[in-house]
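Hey, can you fold this one?
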Amino acid sequence: MKPASEKATPEIPRQGRVERRTKETQIVLQVGLDGTGAAKVETGIPFFTHMLEAWAKHGLMDLTVDARGDLDVDLHHTVEDVGICLGKAFREALGDKAGIVRYGASFLPMDEALLHAAVDISGRPYLVFNVPLRRARILDDARVLGHHRPHPETPQGVLDAAQIPPAVVDDRDHVRGYPWC
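Sure. Predicted structure:
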């Protein structure tokens, strides 16, 4: 087994592509796990687009998202359905999971914020979301999740579709909930 610092290039590119059409959304999403961090993301929700681009860049995964939704009604449908597509594409790209390390953990300091996440790519999805949210909205646009408190529906959709059970603990207010907006 190679040390984690040595990246072996798989013989077959690990890619996943998902199309989803519902009454509220039309989404085409493609992810390449062995990418360079290139992203072409269109969601109609500027901050959500920014977060997906950052995810691709810092994860060195190529990501293409074309999402159309009923943004005039609620941004939540688009955010949740993109999350489901991302999880399904990620699971498809992992294939039989050959050559990956099953467990991982990371601390991510961001200015005055600290996020800790741990994952187990076991195929048995389960979410622990220990993120006390103090604000009524995460983004400046009140339509994101309505006027109620954000909840873990979006990460649960990603993780259920990807079949990955992480535990997420965040102890600073700056980024509470941001990974899931």
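The longest strand covers residues 25-32. Let me know if you want another pass with a different chain boundary.
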